[in-house]
Write a structure and sequence with these properties.
Number of strands: 15
Largest sheet: 5 strands, antiparallel
Oligomer: single chain
Bound molecules: flavin-adenine dinucleotide
Strand content: 35-45%
Number of domains: 1
Helix content: 10-25%
CATH topology: FAD/NAD(P)-binding domain
CATH class: Alpha Beta
Length: 176
């Protein structure tokens, strides 16, 4: 039986906030993206708790409109240590380029907003429950192996001499 074959320009491994933002940025330009994550769900606990104006600008570029996830502006940051007590105050009130200088947010909600946005890009395919096991280059092609609930990923080709992609890579999904 012939194995099903996938073609992609970009393989994104990991669909946390960084991978999901990258997928949306590439999707805005119609780049073919295959994104995989070994997890099947968004990690439910908050981890990162603040974003600065630059991060908010990038999320806007990635297609998140104002109000896509809740933020609360942080007007001042106080730095304390057990030995010195309060040793610095940073004024973070105000905006840069229309974005607050610093906000707090709930990471799972941001990730959900990014995933919702990803669904609007037909060139972006997301496969959850798929883990990249290893990756290596051999001659003009790369190889990857991964195991997950959705099957095993086979080989990917398309590396040029200096590690650059030459055209589309090819992914074989074995047993998926
Ligand atoms: C307890 C804790 C507290 C934190 N507090 C803060 C904070 O206060 N401020 C702050 O800025 N940051 C904080 N962080 C860091 C925060 O989690 C990261 O900034 C953010 O999650 C990084 O996003 P990411 O997309 O790069 O990585 P991650 O969110 O880690 O996402 C990586 C994804 O890749 C997937 N993955 C990994 N390996 C594979 C593989 N081989 N195949 C397929 N998928 C794979 C994982 O399942 C995961 O979904 C904290 C982290 C922890 C653990």
């Amino acid at each position: 039986m012939k194995e099903p074959t996938r073609q992609t320009d970009v393989l994104l491994v990991g669909f946390g906030p960084v991978g999901a933002t990258m997928a949306n940025l590439l999707g805005e330009y119609g780049v073919q993206v295959l994104a995989i994550d070994k997890a099947t769900e968004i990690f439910p606990k908050p981890r990162a708790i603040s974003l600065d104006n630059e991060a908010l600008r990038i999320l806007q570029l990635a297609g998140l409109r104002e109000g896509a996830f809740d933020t609360v502006a942080i007007p001042e940051v106080r730095m304390c240590s057990p030995g010195l007590g309060l040793f610095a105050r940073v004024r973070t009130a105000g905006c840069v380029d229309g974005h607050p200088k610093l906000v707090t947010f709930h990471q799972p909600e941001l990730e959900a907003a990014l995933r919702n946005r990803t669904r609007q890009h037909p060139s972006v395919v997301l496969e959850l429950g798929v883990e990249l096991g290893d990756f290596g280059e051999r001659g003009r092609s790369g190889e990857l192996g991964g195991f997950g609930e959705r099957g095993r990923w086979g080989k990917v080709g398309g590396f040029g001499g200096r590690g650059r992609w030459e055209g589309s890579g090819e992914l074989d999904v074995l047993g998926g």
